[in-house]
Amino acid sequence: MRFAGQQVVITGAAGVYGRGLAEAFAQEGAHLLLSDGDAAALAALANALPPGRAVLHPADLTDDGAIDGLIAAATGKGAPQVLVNNAGIYPFIPLMDVTGAEWDKIISVNTRAPFRLMQGIGRAMAAMGRGSIVNVTSAAAEVHRGNGVPYGASKCALEYLTRAFALELGPSGVRVNSARPGFAEGSAGNPMPTGYAEAIRARSLLGALGTPADFAAGVMFLCSEEARFMTGSILDCGGGGHINRRTGAATAARG
Fold first, then answer.
1. What CATH number was assigned to the domain covering residues 7-239?
2. What is the pTM of this model?
3. 196 is catalytic
4. Which of 174, 183, 21, 178 minimizes the C-alpha distance to 110?
5. What pLDDT digit, counting tens, does each position of 88-118 carry?
6. Where are the domains of the chain?
7. Which of 75, 84, 92, 93 is surrounded by the fewest CB atoms within 10 Å?
């Protein structure tokens, strides 16, 4: 029960990773403020959690007013102990086909919203002299993916912001880190190209895909006292998917 009585804010809570995070933090005693753009999916998640453990706050993270409302809800009684910026979108779009509107939406949800939440909630945490922020990023920040360039760019920027906020908030006792999940079945919020999941599974260094529980364990470690001297770090929880390599290189090296 590492988080007994602690207030934990999770964005994108109705997605595959968000559900895993909410369930894991609830099991360890946290009180949750859960946000997502899908109010119905958010309500379904709450029904799967222990009664009275979660407050729901549907919000469109492309809207400044909605972000302001989420900050107010999170800081109305002081400041939460934990903020997990998990919300993100990953449209599968070839680079030359990305429209300006699609680019703006990806950056808005994946980078701008976490930036504003770290400003608002991070300021409240700093006033309390404690807190942990985890930004959910991706190996796409360093591994080129031709059908997800705006997504990769948004996560590069978020990892830069992780370091910037770690420098800004560290003297006030607030830690800021990034965690990269692996690919889990169902984690893409839109149709995947044919064979995408199979290709990732075939390239897995550990012979399997990760699960939301695997990722939640990494995030909770970063938020716990066990990681009290970690800030500005990137924790890869993707089974080695961040390692750039040529197909067959590992086999050739062993031979």
1. 3.40.50.720
2. 0.90
3. no
4. 178
5. 999 889 999 999 999 999 999 999 999 999 9
6. 7-239
7. 92
